[in-house]
Amino acid sequence: MTEDKAHNTLEDFIKKMKAPDSNISYAAIVADPLDVENFIIEYGTYDAGGGFYFETELNDQQTEDFKNELFLEYGLKENTKDFRSVVTNSSEGKLLNHHPLKEKIRPLKAGISVSDLRSIMKSGTLGILFSVQENTKTYLLSNMHVLAYYKEEAGSSLNPKKEQEEIVQPSRSDSANINYENSPFIIGKTVWKRFDGIIDAAVAVLYNDVVSLGGFFNAEIELNPFIYTRLKLNRTVIKYGRTTGLTDGKLISVNAAIRLENPYPTVNREGKYMVFTDQIMTSNMADPGDSGSLLIDEQRKQGIGLTFADINFNDKALLSHKIRNFDPPGRTFHNKLQNIITALEKGDNYDGNSHPLHFNQFI
Predict the structure, then answer these.
(1) In what helix (H) or strand (E) does residue 248 lie, and over which residues does it extend?
(2) What is the pTM of this model?
(3) To pair with 101 at 20 to 30 A between CA atoms, which of 94, 123, 288, 304?
(4) pLDDT in tens, 190-242
């Protein structure tokens, strides 16, 4: 289908995804492997796995050929399983195996373990350090669900819209039996955050006595200090995260939507589920704890996204138009970095007040 038709079709999928009883987990515009001028919709369901939506009528041999091209293009294999979508923030309270990215690391660098001070059951990733035009301080970027604590219970006074969270490195779940109060593990506090169906991001300012050098911990990753806004399909991308370290993947879609459980239902009043749209979708390149990792276009050495969610496959799947039994090996979803920076510079903060910060460059 044409690009315009694909966009309209994706909007139809998104409307269905927003229904309370929807079984659609994600949908994304991807390239048609048989026609570079056209597009198809890759989608997933909670109960029947994944599929592709396209409009061309194919005979049996054409269908088989198309299936083989899809398998080759998107890394699929036969006899798949069902899947679920999850925010990639939780290590489920387990102290994971010893790993340098989960230790106290100074000077601070990108890719290491962080969380808010009060959360003891999660870990995420310090995505990148950067500077702004307003002052000479150093800031860090990660996900809001990594840096903002909120406990959903009656009478709770903790509200991520208003709280300025103190940030610790490493995260609480990565460092058992440590007294964090007034400790050198506290590195800064949040000054901006959003969780709105397009962006899951937060920015913290580092305290003056915290030493940071920038760059990535124990990895030679060349990074252009400025943001890249031209996203191209099939490019090789990399990320450096607290759990899996340096991984690479393929940029499959620049217009994807994913349906997730809402961690802040009584705060943003979006209900039990939220649909995030205008996302980047890549091949599987993250695990829980990698949330907040910076997604980088490997060829251009420029940041393009912020890792926040993934798809895990567990049972069976079907493909529409007679193409059945394929196994997507997983998908990872990333906020577009340009959307984050635009919101940050407008001062669109989750507390409803304006706190603009104008991005200068990555450190």
Answers:
(1) strand 245-261
(2) 0.84
(3) 304
(4) 999 898 899 999 999 999 888 777 888 877 888 888 776 678 888 999 999 99
